[in-house]
Specification:
The protein is α+β, with helices and mostly antiparallel strands and 676 residues long. Helices cover 43% and strands 19% of the residues. The protein has a six-stranded antiparallel sheet, sandwiched between helices.
Amino acid sequence: MRTLLILSKQRAFPAAIEHAVELSRYQLIIKEDLRSAEPLLSRGAIDAILLDLDLTDANSARLIEQVRDAAPDSPLIVISANTQWEWEEDAYLLGVAHVIAKPIRAKLLNNLLERVFQGPPPALPEAMDQPIGGQRLSARSNPTNPNINFDSLEALRKFSGVLTHSLDPQTLLRDFLLLLREIIGVNRAAVFLRSPGSLFGSAPQDHDDRWLRSACAIGLEQSFLEHFALNLTTGLGAYLRKHGRIVRSTSAEAQASPEITREFHLLGGCVAIPILDREALLGVAILDERLTGGRYENEELSLLFHMLEEVGLAIRNSWLHDRLQNSHSMLEGILANLGTACVVVGSNLAVLHANASARRILLAENPDKTHLEFTDLPQELGSKVFTVIKTNVPITSFKYQHPALPEQSYFITISPFQTAMAAGADAALLIIENITSLERAKRLELEASSLRLITTMAEHLAHEIGNSVVPLSTHQQLLTTASLNDEEFRASLSEALGSGVKRITRLANQMMFLARGKTDFGDQVRVNELIDEAFREAYLYHNGAPPDFNIADNTEKLTVAGDQKALRHAFSEVLLNALQATQGEAKKIGVSVTGAGTNGNRVVDIEIRDAGVGFTPEAAVRGPEPFYSTRNVGLGLGLTVTRKIIEDHKGRVEIAPTAAKGSSIVRITLPLSDQN
């Protein structure tokens, strides 16, 4: 992988380069000026330079000279928006490889980069023999074994002291590298690590997890390490990820790979040790030779490998701890900012968490108190929380009013929490949701709905009563001119009075049964007699010829318990609809009565069928709605009253939509009395 240095003071220019080049082949380092890039250029860490520069005056030539002096072996490509031919010619004379005009064309730029890198690679700078900063410490020898330069037991003792910083990776790595300098005299060392998100699958979608970046180093400039990284797809990163073993700079594998050789030279290292967590490659440690110039023995490197494995496990655990801590902090922040009150109570009845809303509600009687305790919970809530913790069973949510806040309404939910290995609940979550506004809105909606219903009912009642009074009013006016001895007038008056009284009587009965709150179950009513009485009552309100009415009852004399008058009215409404729907000479209304169910749960099914046009799907659904009617006369309350009376008797009404015209079906189910 090649490293490209982009020199530009414009933010849009590096972004354009990122979109143009293949990021899988090039690492981009962006700098605004040459001075900030000098640590990279002095080490030969740059393969090519892309310079954003207008070739219009002598200043452009001076800047090109400065870049060539800082990196004489790195190819220089100038990308210019304004170019004059004489200054472009000077640029080529000063050593510029190519001059490209803006806007940047991706295909052209990638082709030029391939041409630039076809030649021999730039010479690598000689590794610096002297350490950069730090103190030279003499290595300590073990007289019993001259091949090992430190006592293993004391090294392990000191290493165990380093692991006390296992939750602080930065301090852990710094102390570990200083320990290596002390016990084996390492000159320079650097540790490169993967990002935590790449290991735990929590990295953003646009995050590139191929890189291992510097986490800690001794003897190396930080300004250089900020812009240097190993890659898991090439060089040392790829080799150690694949093989998982130590590699020396003098080994055949390293010498055969230009990328590995280059990375060893840039870092001044002689050995690379993988940092594993016993599952995957976590990072890489690059070590220089000893302060005295000596090389490391295999036994030393083997021990370092195992020590770094322990370090890797400690770093992984610290990342897991940070991840858990961040999740905990995020959850705590979410709970703290919720408008809903949340309280977490531990198994020892200690309050583990209480957000501001919970403290505001539960400490209403003691507002100066800042910390919520279990004893601050009202007795009703505290006892339920205690029960949930002990039984590990959630309770059914319920409404609640706090004694100190009687004007507020709350909805309570209490749930247990249990870890995988726990025998019982570890904690309980108490959620107190303020539903005062919701309850108020429901009441307002109910009041508005009731007002709309009253308005609609008043309009329909006024219309129905008006229609009933019109014939009476007409005959009243005729009384001044007509004689009561006139047989025709007397018959007309009698008919008008009878029709008006029946309509108003039916209307009064409907209002009475709709307004009735309780049902009297004292009457034992025979079903066949009830239907017969209901038909006669319905026929009183019908002016047509009598239909062919038939009750098919092949069962024993079934009885139901209830209010006989109310039940008779309910069935009369259905039968009156059947009478009104039946047209022509073939007027037939059939009723079938059947018993169903087993002892203790027996019911009677009554099916009323007429020879009308049938119910449409809409009429079958909306039929029981108040004031719904397909006829031009009447209030549309008949089936509404029927449904209320039947449901008050613990029954149900079903209207069957008719696919083909010629029949309307209404089914009524009622529970049988104990006398059957």
